[in-house]
Amino acid sequence: MNEYIAFCGLNCETCEARLATINSDDELRVKVAKEWSELNKAEITPDMINCTGCRIEGVKTPFCGSICPIRQCGREKGFGTCGECPEMETCGKLAMITGNNPEALCNLKSIS
Question: Is 6 helix (H, G, I), strand (E, B) or coil?
């Protein structure tokens, strides 16, 4: 199973927060913080942009680490990803991602 595929199916390997972290790229952190602040209508600062990946040991963004309902649910149920869940196709939480990102659903189906 690709360890870079998040519980929700997003590919952490291409996530700019992860790229900023592994490359110690402060300019990218500033860019991502600005974009995510606008997108989420919340203050996100560059120091919050540190993440190794949803399912990989190490640092997480505040959202990914402790707020994301999808990650929390998958961990509570003991799944590797939501692709293992029998409710994957009908889950309202997961639909927040897969409804806007068909690639995420495809990733989950390919590794389940």
Answer: coil
Total residue length of the chain: 112
Tokens of residue 80, six digits: 């590797």
pTM: 0.89
**Are residues 85 and 7 in contact, defined by beta-carbon separation less than 8 angstroms?**
no
Residue 10: is it exposed, middle or buried by C-beta count within 10 angstroms (0-12/13-18/19+)?
buried
How many structural domains does the chain have?
Answer: 1
**Tokens at 21, concatenated:** 């972290």
Domain of 89?
Answer: 12-111
Answer yes or no: are the C-beta atoms of 40 and 48 closer than 8 Å: no
* Contact of 102 with 79, CB cutoff 8 Å: no
Is the model's pLDDT at 73 over the cut of 80?
yes
Q: Are 10 and 102 in contact (CB under 8 A)?
A: no
